[in-house]
Amino acid sequence: MSVTQRTDSGVHALRAGAQIDLPPFRTKFISPESIQTLLNVWLTKEAKNLRILEVTQVPDIFNVKYSTIEKVYMYRVAIAKPENKVKYIAPISEVYRTLFLSENNFCPEKVQKATELLVGEKDFASFIGRFSKNKRHSICKISSFVFEKSQPFMANNDALSDMFNYYQFTCFGNRFLYKMMRRMVGVLLSTGCDKIRIEDIHHMFNHPAPTSWPCRAFVAPAYGLYLANVFYNPDHLVITNEEMEAKLNLIQIKTAANSQSLVQNNEHNYYGLKMFDKKIENICAQLNTELEAL
């Protein structure tokens, strides 16, 4: 089984893809709906924090990693309100799901302005934690990067939620490098907190390299990041009639081969049992001869 990469360890996944190749053991076709139902029943029974939203049959050309054309990441941030900056308590429903900050001079307008600098096809070598000699490897296309006000998970049931202003980053991109999303969020928040300047972001793109990372910027922790959705190449999701017929023929061939093997195994087992019975008869006859001699 192969799964969609989440880029960083510890990141949540709201929607992710997985691919599994099932061998044609039987002629009866198991519908995707039946597979989805059975998997969800097992996941619920085993108390797994996972649910299957959709199961579909794909052609051989499909690859859950390399057929991806766009990913959507979301990052949640909560900024303590001015009257709560000295002492605040994070709501239990948001712990390890949202990044909480206490900053006296946080400016959302600066974050919004800095976000626009990250949109487009650019070299993001300054946003990766590992140095790579392959320059093409660090070229990514960010089609959209939105910073907007958000809501707590339990706005009406948790009084502690009123102590914060909630924000959300939503980023669409064709590919993401190691820790790239977390570093982008860290740079944007550092800009909004006056730890770095807009000019520092320009410098990162004008001199793309890990050494261009601003020393006062921070890497946002993984627990605030969510893989929200994954989009695949539509041409890699369509299975043609020719492929379907070929798969059905393969099932019939393997079924016939399995049946022939079963017959041969049964014949072999029958011959083995006959030989075993013959040995038992010889042993019994020998024992009778020895008893008569006594």
Question: Gist?
Answer:
With 294 residues, this protein is of the alpha+beta class.
Please describe what this structure looks like:
This protein has helices at residues 32-45, 108-115, 180-192, 198-206, 241-293; strands at residues 2-3, 12-13, 18-19, 68-80, 99-101, 120-123, 139-149, 164-173, 225-232. The longest helix has 53 residues, at 241-293. Helix 2 (108-115) crosses helix 3. It has a domain at 69-235: 2-Layer Sandwich (Alpha-Beta Plaits). The radius of gyration is 31 Å and the shape is globular. Strands 2, 4, 5, 6, 7, 8 and 9 form a 7-stranded mixed β-sheet that branches. It is of the alpha+beta class and 294 residues long. It contains 5 helices and 9 strands. Helix content is 33%, strand content 19%. It comes from Polyplax serrata.
Provide tags for this entry.
Alpha-Beta Plaits, 294 residues, TruA/RsuA/RluB/E/F_N, single chain, EC 5.4.99.12, alpha+beta, seven-stranded mixed beta sheet
Estimate the helix proportion, in percent: 25-40%
> Roughly how many Å apart are the termini?
69 Å
CATH-assigned homologous superfamily of the domain at 69-235 = Pseudouridine synthase I, catalytic domain, C-terminal subdomain
Unreliably modeled segments = none
CATH architecture of the domain at 69-235: 2-Layer Sandwich
Mean pLDDT: 83
Count, helices: 5
Largest sheet: 7 strands, mixed
Shape: globular
Q: Give the strand content.
A: 15-25%
**Number of DSSP strand runs:** 9
Radius of gyration: 31 Å
Structural class, from secondary structure content? alpha+beta
Return the string of H and E elements: EEEHEEHEEEHHEH
CATH topology of the domain at 69-235: Alpha-Beta Plaits
- Quickly name the level 1 CATH class of the domain at 69-235: Alpha Beta
